[in-house]
Write a structure and sequence with these properties.
Layout lengths: L9 H4 L7 E5 L2 E7 L5 E2 L6 H16 L18 H9 L4 H17 L22 H18 L7 H12 L9 H7 L23 H31 L10 H29 L1 E3 L5 E3 H36 L5 H10 L12
Antiparallel strand pairs: 1-2, 2-3, 4-5
Helix pairs in contact: 2-9, 4-5, 4-6, 4-10, 5-9, 6-9, 8-9, 8-10, 9-10, 10-11
This protein binds fe (ii) ion (2 copies).
Amino acid sequence: MTTQQVTFTEAELLADHTMAEPLIEGGVRCHGGFDAGGTYVSPCTKFRVPAIEAWQAQNAKMFGTEVLHVPSETWPGHVPNVAQARHLIQAGVPEPLIATLTRIGTVEGFGANIRLLQPGNLQTHFDEDIRGTAIDHLGKGLFEAHGRDEAGWEEEAGHKDMWFAARDIAFETPTAKIDVEAMLARMGFGQPGAPGGFDPERALPDDIDVNLELIANLMIRVLFIEVQAFHTFAWADGWLSDGDLVAGDGRAADLVSFIRADETPHVGYLKTALTEMRDRTWIGSGGQKHKGSELIGTLWDRGLRQSLGEGRAQTRKAVLGEVEHWCLQHDGGADILAEFHSLSTAGTSDSEAA
Ligand SMILES: [Fe+2]
Ligand SMILES: [Fe+2]
């Protein structure tokens, strides 16, 4: 294990594998591509993926601990569920699904904010050596690769536009007829406290560097979004892959499967760096030492509470608000809406948060 490479240049962490063919879908040149065998290859993974494995192995060897883990089952399933999505489309009310795909793409784009973080020299905040760790590479390629994956880079589209492309394939360019700006505004985007905003309140002791807290906090919040997204992928595949239901012969579902593959290194590096922070001793501004496990635990618990509580309620309200908005514009809309609610996943009334 000690012979594994653990130090990488930024150029290496941003390097692509050699692709035999680019990914072009719905006229959009996307990131990533295909190898000679036709298998999808995620962008910036030539060194990033082996790097994450090497950092995890190194940390396990140094501290004898497990990598932080949070299963997707921590969060309830997607709202609307697959049966509700199918019902809306079959009832001639596809707009809430168009809204949901637009919302997902928009949130993905916000994920690129992670590249705005400025870690600087993080060694000053940790007692143990951080050379050759994921922590030490956050500002040297990892945040940048993540940002490029979410929002695109140069001429290559990222997840934001890939979700929009999936929407446009499945619903045959619906945005020509729908006011997307108004739709996003109804769902709470572009307002103070909108989804994707930073949580400004401090949770850690005053002597802990504010910037480090901001970084660790955003990483935890983004990790939770990334893990929950695996519900979204399964959900989207559950109806986007049905050629009788939506257009595109399954191409929209293929795009979603490529996005899903790209998320694995995001979860990987975030978990790895947060694990390294948890296992280390943090140094406050006056030289006081703090257990990383307590600090990360504090941010983790608060983030999870927010995600399961307010964050989820906000998303449900936005999505269910769109369902109501569009159903009630159709003849027989009240019946379509009643049927929608009757298909709610057992134990969770979809109307409760609306
Ligand atoms: Fe993404
Ligand atoms: Fe991601």
